[in-house]
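On clarity, I found the account of how folds are encoded harder to follow than it need be. For illustration, here is how one protein appears when written out as sequence plus structure tokens.
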Amino acid sequence: MHPYHENRIHGTSVFHFEVYSHYDKDGFYFVSQHWHEELEWIYVENGILHLTIHGKSIIVNAGEFCFINSGELHEIKSIGFSFHHAIVFNPHFLDFAIYDACQHNFIRPVTNGNLLFPTCFSTFSEEDRKQVLFHMQEIIKLYHEKSFCTLLSIKIHILHVIELFFKKNYFLKRTLFLKRKDSLNQLKQVIEYIHKNITEPISLQALAEICFMSPNYFCHYFKQEIGKTPVTFINEYRIEKACEMLSASNLSISDISLSVGFDNFSYFIRKFREYKGITPKEYRVLCTK
């Protein structure tokens, strides 16, 4: 599972680009709410993914794609068996060394975040969906084949997508007001606080104070932006940490329960079954096969 704020380099220091292809046979794939400076293009080859992007629930079926912009809070989980690809890259690797009209009119608005990629597959016409899918599939194939011209070809395909978006007016203009941006930054601090203190009791009062809100208003705001209540978010994150420990350690299930912040073992078992559909013991058996 990724950390809340990814600060690692995707790709190499000279080519900030990477493709993550993930096959999930059991339907347990889950990436908790996080954000990163990189753009992320997701293509689902098989199965179904459920994404939450700034509180908006999105279903991506086999043969579909979606876009996640720089800085957007998002969560990803599979619905049963799935095979998907995440194309992740720093937008600034598209910048030209020599500033010209092309850089000014087409590249800079994308790399500085003034223009945003539309999230949903349904935004595009059928013909344009085919074009975007073609470029995504070629990028994925090129990345895994790693031929002599791979890096150049990948960048060309990305630029073709950007060209299409300008031609068909698909880009969205950023309209985030300063006040909303500040509150989203506070929300990111809340999630970071949860991740750092997951083993301890976490009160709504403490979380609300980070955003300078009352607990009631904070709960409303959190659910609006994240798509779930703070309590649900905390429980889900604790269950995911427990899953990591179940598959990577020999600790007893009761010890794992305590180490991820559940002081009531029965409640931990109930919540685990609710989120994963099986018991912790059954999960451990599946992960060790």
